[in-house]
Design brief:
The protein is built from four helices and three strands; from the N terminus they run αααβββα. The chain is α+β, with helices and mostly antiparallel strands. It is globular and about 45 Å long. The longest helix has 26 residues, at 2-27. It has helices spanning 2-27, 32-48, 55-58, 101-107, and strands spanning 75-80, 83-88, 94-98. The structure holds zinc ion. Zinc ion is lined by residues 62, 64-65, 67, 88, 90-91, 93.
Length: 110
């Protein structure tokens, strides 16, 4: 019973995280501050319920300052061989991701 409830909670949390990132994307043009707050909320939910933020969303947030990132706006994306280098223009730090999405699922977990 306990396990079941936990899974159920994680499922709900996952949905909330997805929704929050969706909102973040929608609000960014006019209210980038709100986008950052949605991302922050999503992170909190993830930590509280032990739910991983899906890779596709992780790439939209700065690992260092947790800003919501939009390539060409507050993030610069460059290909570096087998990696994608994303520079956050808010804190000017860089993140690197493997280019192939399959490797990425395995390597970027935290
Ligand atoms: Zn940053």
């Amino acid at each position: 019973m306990k396990m079941k409830k936990k899974y159920w909670l994680q499922d709900i949390s996952k949905q909330r995280i997805e929704r929050l990132f969706e909102f973040a994307g929608q609000e960014f043009d006019e209210h980038p501050d709100r986008s950052n707050r949605y991302v922050q909320l999503a992170r909190q939910i993830g930590m509280r319920h032990n739910v991983r933020i899906p890779i596709r969303f992780k790439r939209r947030m700065c690992r260092h300052c947790h800003s919501y990132l939009v390539p060409g706006n507050n993030a610069r994306v460059r290909l570096q061989g087998t990696h994608v280098a994303v520079t956050c223009l808010v804190c000017e730090k860089q993140m690197r991701y493997p280019y192939s999405s399959r490797i990425e699922e395995k390597q970027i977990t935290g």
